[in-house]
Fold:
Amino acid sequence: MKESTEEKEFNYEEFEKATIKGLYQKKPLMGQSGLLSPLIKHFLEKALALELEQHLKGEDNNKRNGISTKKVKSSSGEFELITPRDRNSTFEPEIVAKRQVILDDDLCEKILSLYAKGMSYNDIKKYLEEIYFLSFSPAQMSEITDRIIPELEQWQSRPLDSLYAIVWFDAIHYKLREQGVVKTKALYNVYAVNLEGERELLGIYISESESSRFWLNVLEDLQLRGISDILIACTDNLKGFSDAISTIFPKTVVQSCIVHQVRNTLKYAMRKDYKALTQDMKNIYGSSRLEIAEVQLQEFVAKWQHKYPTAVNSWQNNWYKLSAFFDFGVHIRRMMYTTNPIENVHRQMRKVTKTKGSFSSDMALRKLIYLVIREINKSPKRKIYQWSLIFGQLYIKFENRIIPSLK
Structure:
């Protein structure tokens, strides 16, 4: 680039005339070829020149050394920006950093919001071209979504409350490409309700598959981040999961998901028996008291043991985990007998990720899921309905464990 272009003066009089004329011609103020783009370009270049001037005051053996140019993009349009250079290459501009090509945070947030709604890079690219007349390469789009990584890492490692009322644990599976091979991996999610009745996703974790061993790692991380106690933990029926929870949080009441148990039972049955099996299982978990439920379980065993021994044995072997919710009132039962609360979160995640055939890396998946979480957290309906009533019941049941956390 020739040095002479650096010294070109900005003519305010010509700019004013051109802008007024453009307004009468109904030309846009912002966007590609927007009327204000020359003024924004001028102010930025003036600020960069002043930055270099201040920088050179502290370096005796350094001076100006020409210019460089780069195309920058903003909601005001796209234009070439002239940046002054120094001989020692120690100048690091702040107003527009060396490798920065996106000028305003609003545009970046718009792109992140579109990506969080499930739009592909190509769809976002077309949208930006139509609305802002801006063109982005796939590398630039990836660079913009990478801006969320520091925020994601801070969120994932943030300190947590010492006590949570109810925590749901569940995993969702995605396809990822590794060295040209597509693999299915498990995304572990931890969803909780604190003592204020507010819902909160505590963290996301990725592993090769869902296992109680990895869940133990997740629980240890939650403990390191500040959790010392969980009143109630709700899980799927993964073997060894309740033992993993008891290892880290020995006082926690563990409830296995009734819905998962019903689905697993029906997997062993013929379709013609679905209706009768479903009703008999409902008689068990729909009972008003534990004693009645155990009578219904005995009748269920007597009726189906011969035909479906594996399904029946599963109910018997897991009964101590399936029946924990009978110790609570109806409002708490509704919350803990199923993992539906966290599955509702999974549905929102799937709604966004369903357009993705597979993800290029663990980080690509984590970025998109975190953006979905940010969108979920914007919803004002974050508090559990009738929480005062529910908390009162929990307080009576767990008074000695709740009081220390309220101090």
